[in-house]
Write a structure and sequence with these properties.
It is built from four helices and nine strands, in the order H-E-E-H-E-E-E-E-E-E-E-H-H. By secondary structure, it is an alpha+beta fold. A six-stranded antiparallel beta sheet has the order 1-2-7-4-9-3.
């Protein structure tokens, strides 16, 4: 693990893609099928990233990595409800736009577009309802967390509920680092 000083320097090198954004916390409650997460709100950072035209995904990956979110992948969002009971997830949109359902069938729908970041707490269901052909995201997870796939099947619970309760809080906001706004919404939770 790199020393804290190296993380600060790495974050400083990546601030050229960050722009001011008002964080929108969204609490999604257990609906009986999907546990969601009543303790940790989903965090939407609209237009948080000012991305270059050339290779924007690499910039997002570097930013997430500098802030201790790893296991980065590039793709879209699955077109079926799913959630992770063993890890939190961040999605950085680098191409196109999509309408995403969060929280299961009775949850909310959001439009996400290039430059948006969504931090999804463990347990929160998410699904792509429809997207542009060029819709792409970079996804990542806090260092030390390994994701699983859950689909809202009855046999997944109560194991999934126990897993969610054990998922550690990330030590760093994937966009803004250790002093980022995530701590105001997550790290202050009891």
């Amino acid at each position: 693990m790199p020393p804290q000083e190296d993380l600060s320097l790495a974050h400083t090198r990546n601030t050229n893609v960050i722009q001011p954004s008002v964080v929108k916390p969204i609490v999604l409650r257990d609906d009986g099928t999907y546990p969601n997460n009543e303790k940790l709100p989903l965090l939407l950072y609209p237009a948080a990233l000012k991305l270059p035209q050339h290779d924007p995904a690499t910039k997002i990956e570097a930013l997430f990595k500098a802030n201790r979110w790893a296991g980065a992948w590039r793709n879209g969002i699955y077109g079926f409800h799913h959630y992770h009971s063993t890890a939190h997830e961040v999605l950085g949109v680098y191409g196109g736009s999509a309408r995403v359902r969060l929280g299961g069938e009775n949850g909310i729908s959001l439009e996400v577009t290039r430059g948006d970041v969504v931090i999804i707490p463990a347990g929160v269901a998410h699904k792509n309802l429809g997207s542009d052909p060029d819709f792409r995201v970079v996804g990542a997870y806090p260092i030390g967390q390994s994701w699983d796939m859950c689909y809202g099947e009855p046999q997944e619970r109560p194991r999934a509920d126990r897993n969610i309760a054990r998922v550690d809080l990330p030590g760093s906001d994937p966009v803004h680092g250790v002093d980022g706004p995530m701590k105001d919404h997550w790290l202050s939770e009891d």
